[in-house]
Amino acid sequence: MGREFFVWENFVILSEEKMAAKEKYEESELFRIRHSAAHVMAQAVLEKFPGAKIAIGPAIDDGFYYDFDLPRPLTPEDLVEIEDRMRQIIRGKFPFVRKEISAEEARKLFRDQPYKLELIDGLESGGFDENGEPLNEKPILSTFSHDTFTDLCRGPHVKDTSEIDPEAIKLMSVAGAYWRGDEKRPMLQRIYGTAWYNKEEMEQYLWKLEEAKRRDHRKIGRDLDLFSIVDEVGAGLILWHPKGAMIRKITEDFWMSEHERSGYQFVYTPHIGKASLWETSGHLNFFKENMFSPLDIEGQQYYLKPMNCPFHIHIYKSQLRSYRDLPLRYAEKGTVYRYERSGVLHGLMRVRGFTQDDAHHFCREDQMPHEIDFVLEFSLNILRAFGFNDFKAYLSTKPAKSEGDPARWKAAEAALEASLKRYGVEYELDEGGGAFYGPKIDLKINDAIGREWQLSTIQFDFNEPECFDMNYIGEDGLPHRPYMVHRALLGSMERFFGILIEHYAGAFPVWLSPIQAVVIPIADRHLDYAKKVVESLKSAGLRAYADERSERMNAKIRDAQNQKIPYMLVVGDKEIENNQVALRLRSGENPGPMALEAFLDKARQEIAKKI
RNA sequence: GCCACCGUAGCUCAGCUGGUAGAGCAGACGAUUCGUAAUCGUCCGGUCGAGGGUUCGAAUCCCUCCGGUGGCUCCA
Length: 611
Fold this sequence. Notes:
By secondary structure, the chain is of the alpha+beta class. The protein contains 19 helices and 28 strands.
């Protein structure tokens, strides 16, 4: 067994091979099976609701969905019924028949299907595909038919429904989805389903989903008493319990010492600032929807800070800066508040108040490439210390609408890309995906059920230095605009903690474990010795306690096990006699009796190695 | 914010079509002193998310709000 590290299957840097694999999925039989299952589902739904309007139904990772406009909300019973009917249809061995048609024919065929008509318009004008994405060339329209159902579709599909295993499909859930993802358009009902080559594969998938639930940070957070979110305090606001706070403290201590030794200077800034500050910074322009309403203080408006940068900029501006002063690196664990719409809140991952491990670099143009190298290497090292090696990197470049000198954009993008290459980080290019004020690198990882979360971000800002008219005096005696880089490595303490919990399923490495060792006396007469052992552990710097309850040893082990405490030290008559402890690990391994000193050596080593 | 579902003791959950609540775990107390994943017993614990309505009577039905879950949208 070993330790409970989780190996992420889809948790890799997107390399070219992976991209190729992704393209291959769309040509795979599994893709055709899923896409075809979506059609079969649409048929079953249309039979049940003859007036239903159908939208689109693609294959997706792990399954498929289809969007419908229905006369009433779907119930779980409906899903069972639809699923049963799907099996019947599949057993009918209906062939899928492709037919090319003209736009005119298509309009006639789908005259009662307004969503299809809209798609036809988009396709015909050569403008947009089914997702509303622009098309390069005018496509040939085609339909696919099986049994009684015909859909506007480019395919590909299975030859006939016998290629779908009726025992390897399952309807998973129904959810609302805006037509074309636009919240101004109608809300449709989306049915999600999953489909596999065979029953075994599907069951394996379902088992994985169950497993993912078991490592959900919200559940573990409660079970291990790490944090809570309570109604009366407010949605999206986190209470860190002592054990969670201990992990945070260890994380922050490590973070602080790494920053200190790498040339950062720490700053502290307030939680609120005057409206005029946020006007100057531009936040009231482009970030207002995410800011809490202002506080009125003696007739002046103050806002809770959604970001730390304006404060750091003011520290920069507190005196005249020389080119010799640069680079400056200001770091702060800055607590910010952002209004997030209620529907998007999610445990620790998406909250309304959080602490960013923020920093701002100010440098000269000639220092910029090195500064990026430095920050990228620094982030990778920090992330590795927490056991993260696999993530996706994204490089986002200049969008159509942007501010700042194009030459600066070019230089910054080049610096970012060069650093990624230098450090061997494979990345995906998100052309035009940068913010209006600068290009950036994002590092993202997946949570327990494959949702992607942003961790680190390194982004240039060409806007704020202008807004605040930042300067330094160059060798030429003239003022120059410094380059400014925002960066957060862990992202926010809250989200990072959530990701940590899921990554380790609560079995944190020893150096992070809030309780590292529990001493378990077998009977009450071993209590004194147990307490003595705890004292030794504590003076050696371990976080330890004795389980003094009048419970049986088995119960104490079980509880320690469930609390994922790394070391259990059982002490009974034999241990007392030999001045030993009997070590048991949460993995179930049982190294057995050893001298206390021997255990301390082992523990010290593992803590130093951060495993 | 939108769609759907959900909200009963600290936790997990039962309580059918309306007749004012129950289990296990946790907790307290007592007994037990035991060698690698749950010792036994007793007790405590809920104005059924909040407010309003229908009804002789609401945890059960209706409305509003709050919160959660899964999606959508958003994510500087």
